[in-house]
């Protein structure tokens, strides 16, 4: 399949935002500046990191778009063949990254017990806190595996609601606020963005040529990210249902082709999947090994986070050529075998 350069670059940017979010706010690499003026500057520099949740759901929308394109270009695939193909592509990296994360936890003496539950997809949704298990970001890969395997049912559902996609997805999204627990809510929202990605590929007009609307939403998102008003994070989450579809449509329709011309972003997009599934254990090692080292560059967040980001990119690049590239080749061989 020929790659869509705009989506590669968008993936690369989204992956960097997710890793930055975990660096800054969850793994908490480095210390914030004590000087109030420098602290404000630091908050401004790390503003993109506040959109980590946005980036994850944006990945879901891209997945819906790309899989709809793949289904169209490989219409000869039966449901069983589709499931095998997607399993080849996703499952090995899922378990490889999970095993690596467990090994890292054991080596850092942070693994309380070695139990088979860590290998169950459901375990990632077993805690009221999103950061369950040894590699918490795998929750979204677990969801993508589920959505990929249910793809034909999802695409039938999208065709049923295609003419009313905007209203129905808004209502579905509103319903997620009634879900009990983050796991169910995250699964439902992932499904919604996945459906939206499919609908954009199938030609839904609701999100086409809405540049003014997108500009307004981007402004509101930045304003909320910078503000200290109560529940600003919840408001950011609410705006995602409008911002993500418009952003994906803009990436595909932009006449300037800014994203397609960036070779760096395109390469980051190429390794974005590897970066996403392996970055957590890399950050855990970095955090554990540097928190007691008296080097100023590793103590201040404004320098430690970029160093951690660079380390994730370098290691992910190596892991891509060691593992993911071979898995991609295997999935392509499977498709070629079915065509002949």
Q: Which helices and strands, and how do they pair?
A:
Layout: H1 5-26, H2 36-45, H3 52-73, H4 79-107, H5 138-149, H6 151-161, H7 165-176, H8 182-201, H9 211-226, H10 232-253, H11 263-270, H12 272-290, H13 296-299, H14 301-339
Helix pairs in contact: 1-3, 1-11, 1-12, 1-14, 3-8, 3-10, 4-5, 4-12, 4-14, 5-8, 6-8, 7-8, 8-10, 9-10, 12-14
Describe the structure.
It contains 14 helices and no strands. The radius of gyration is 20 Å and the shape is globular. It has one domain (5-339). It has helices at 5-26, 36-45, 52-73, 79-107, 138-149, 151-161, 165-176, 182-201, 211-226, 232-253, 263-270, 272-290, 296-299, 301-339. 38% of the residues are buried. The model has no long low-confidence stretch (mean pLDDT 87). Helix 5 (138-149) packs across helix 8 (182-201). The longest helix is centred in the C-terminal third of the chain and has 39 residues, at 301-339. Helices cover 72% and strands 0% of the residues. With 340 residues, the protein is mostly helical. It starts with a helix and ends with a helix.
Describe this structure in a few short sentences.
By secondary structure, the chain is mainly α.
Distance between the termini: 16 Å
Overall pLDDT: 87
SSE topology string? HHHHHHHHHHHHHH
Sheet/helix structural class: mainly alpha
CA radius of gyration is 20 Å
Low-confidence stretches: none
Which structural traits does this protein have?
single chain; mainly alpha; 14 helices
């Amino acid at each position: 399949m020929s790659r869509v350069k705009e989506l590669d670059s968008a993936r690369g940017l989204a992956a960097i935002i997710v890793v930055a979010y975990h660096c800054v706010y969850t793994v908490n690499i480095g210390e914030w500046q004590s000087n109030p003026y420098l602290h404000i500057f630091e908050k401004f520099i790390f503003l993109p990191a506040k959109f980590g949740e946005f980036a994850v759901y944006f990945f879901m929308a891209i997945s819906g778009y790309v899989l709809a394109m793949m289904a169209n270009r490989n219409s000869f695939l039966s449901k069983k063949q589709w499931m095998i193909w997607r399993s080849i592509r996703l499952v090995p990296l899922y378990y490889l990254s999970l095993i690596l994360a467990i090994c890292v936890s054991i080596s850092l003496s942070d693994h309380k017990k070695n139990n088979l539950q860590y290998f169950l997809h459901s375990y990632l949704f077993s805690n009221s806190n999103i950061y369950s298990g040894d590699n918490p970001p795998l929750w979204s890969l677990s969801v993508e595996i589920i959505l990929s395997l249910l793809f034909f049912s999802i695409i039938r559902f999208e065709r049923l609601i295609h003419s009313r996609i905007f209203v129905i997805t808004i209502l579905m999204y509103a319903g997620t606020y009634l879900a009990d627990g983050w796991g169910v809510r995250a699964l439902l929202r992932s499904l919604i963005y996945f459906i939206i990605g499919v609908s954009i590929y199938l030609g839904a007009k609701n999100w086409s040529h809405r540049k003014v609307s997108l500009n307004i939403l981007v402004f509101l998102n930045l304003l909320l990210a910078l503000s200290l008003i109560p529940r600003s994070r919840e408001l950011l989450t609410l705006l995602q249902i409008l911002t993500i579809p418009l952003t994906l449509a803009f990436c595909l329709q932009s006449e300037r082709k800014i994203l397609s011309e960036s070779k760096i972003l395109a390469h980051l997009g190429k390794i974005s999947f590897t970066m996403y599934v392996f970055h957590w254990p890399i950050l855990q090692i970095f955090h554990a090994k540097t928190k007691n080292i008296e080097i100023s560059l590793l103590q201040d967040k404004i320098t430690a986070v970029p160093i951690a980001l660079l380390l994730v990119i370098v290691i992910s690049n190596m892991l891509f050529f060691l593992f993911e590239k071979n898995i991609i080749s295997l999935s392509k061989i499977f498709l070629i075998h079915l065509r002949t």
